[in-house]
UniProtKB/TrEMBL annotation:
Keywords: Membrane, Transmembrane, Transmembrane helix. It is found in: Cell membrane. InterPro entries: MFS, MFS_dom, MFS_trans_sf. GO terms for cellular component: plasma membrane. Its main location: membrane. The keyword Transmembrane applies. Residues 391-411 are annotated as: Disordered. GO terms for molecular function: transmembrane transporter activity. PANTHER family: MAJOR FACILITATOR SUPERFAMILY (MFS) PROFILE DOMAIN-CONTAINING PROTEIN (PTHR42910:SF1), TRANSPORTER SCO4007-RELATED (PTHR42910). It is a multi-pass membrane protein. This is MFS transporter. The chain crosses the membrane at residues 43-61, 73-90, 96-116, 128-147, 159-176, 212-233, 245-263, 270-288, 294-313, 334-354, 360-380.
Length: 411
């Protein structure tokens, strides 16, 4: 079983790894100017790492079911450090874009660590342990903006990737020394069949399928908020520096604390209620975000609320899918997180285009529309699942409403 210090180290390592994808977010204007990229197209700087992340999810994360996860985690972390250094010294746009794509593919080490945690944590504390590690991931996503903004203002944008490369290699050393060797029996499965079985899970597991679609929508929504936010804040009337833009990441980190409590709630069987509340909060946050024209406070509150909602939904999703089969955690994670990455990639490129054409109001309308879609899909899928159970497993408890009584947890 994993000890608390190892879980905390995992949380830090995951936060650092995933932060590497988002360091460029508050630097979009600077990087765009460096490589002469138009505003409407600068979202590609965030889209390519997400595409790389999706590739890594499909091709690397499933390996955790058939190879030594300890070696996989340490090896990926070292290579991630190398990719960060390559990004820092990139001489032109093509080299930079290739480096950040590779960086995204290797950053999926976070998901290998999440599956490792889910498998090796004590069963009664699985939700809490996954919540702590996931909290590290969300905090890394948010604090990446704060750190990169400050470093960029002090030493230039390339310094961000140099510092991250050093920290990542050092973290790999700590993981190699402290990570317990896995005693889990691994399946002898050819790589091709491993990949095909990952895709088959989406067809065979309705819970995985519905939760993956919800993940795609909620991560698209938060990317729609955070990607053009830097463009709006650095323009008139605020003209904020990268350091000040990065401070919004601190606000979001407060919302990320929801991971710890959400994981405990899911352990108690409240994953469906957690999902509904989280989705509702994400929708409500857009009304506050729309006040950016008058005040920065509304946007700061929106970031806190939408991150809390996202974190709660994400932990609830993982809590449910990891109950499906303990031998398939790597493939379940790969299938689920591929949809997350798709949502983030599409949200990044579409939101910058919408901002360039329709401004911040258009961004808020787009985000609210996606959030409405996520909430509606969740309600419809939960009711459909409830009706399916009524037809196939009739019993008195099944007569309870799925949304108000958390039927999804008892599938």
């Amino acid at each position: 079983m994993l000890t608390r210090p190892v879980i905390v180290l995992f949380s830090f390592a995951c936060g650092l790894a995933v932060a590497t994808i988002y360091f460029s977010q508050p630097l979009l204007d600077t990087i765009g100017a460096q490589f002469s990229t138009p505003t409407a197209e600068v979202g590609i700087v965030l889209t390519l790492p997400q595409i790389g992340y999706a590739i890594g999810l499909l091709l690397i994360v499933p390996l955790g079911d058939i190879v030594d996860q300890r070696r996989l985690i340490v090896g990926q972390t070292v290579l991630l450090g190398v990719s960060l250094l390559a990004t820092a010294i990139a001489p032109n746009a093509w080299t930079f874009l290739a480096s950040i794509t590779a960086l995204g593919a290797l950053a999926v080490v976070t998901q290998v660590m999440v599956t490792y945690t889910a498998v090796h944590a004590a069963p009664e504390r699985q939700g809490w342990a996954v919540g702590v590690v996931t909290g590290g991931i969300i905090s890394g996503i948010l604090l990446a903006r704060t750190v990169s903004g400050a470093l960029s203002d002090l030493f230039g944008w390339r310094s961000v990737y140099v510092v991250a490369a050093i920290a990542t290699v050092a973290t790999a050393g700590m993981l190699m020394r402290t990570l317990p060797r896995s005693t889990r029996t691994r399946q002898a499965l050819p790589y091709r069949r491993l990949l095909l079985s990952t895709l088959r899970l989406l067809h065979d597991e309705p819970v995985l399928r519905s939760r993956a679609i919800i993940a795609m929508l909620v991560f698209a929504a938060i990317t729609v908020l955070l990607t053009p936010m830097v463009l709006a804040l650095t323009a008139a009337p605020y003209h904020l520096s990268h350091t000040h833009v990065g401070l919004f990441g601190l606000a979001g980190a407060a919302g990320a604390l929801g991971a710890f409590k959400a994981g405990a709630w899911c352990d108690d069987g409240w994953a469906t209620r957690v999902t509904g509340i989280g989705l509702s909060l994400m929708l409500a946050a857009w009304a506050l975000a729309a006040t950016l024209h008058w005040t920065l406070l509304g946007l700061a509150l929106a970031v806190v609320i939408i991150d809390f909602g996202l974190q709660s939904v994400h932990v609830a999703n993982q809590s449910l899918i990891y109950r499906l089969d303990t031998e398939l955690h790597g493939r379940l994670t790969a299938a689920y997180m591929t949809f997350y990455s798709m949502g983030s990639a599409v949200g990044a490129i579409v939101s910058t285009w919408v901002y360039s054409v329709h401004g911040w109001t258009g961004v808020c309308l787009l985000g609210a529309t996606i959030s409405v879609g996520a909430l509606a899909y969740w309600a419809i899928s939960e009711r459909a699942a409830h009706q399916h159970r009524l037809r196939h497993q009739p019993h008195p408890e099944a007569l309870q409403d799925p949304i108000t009584h958390g039927a999804c947890e008892r599938q």
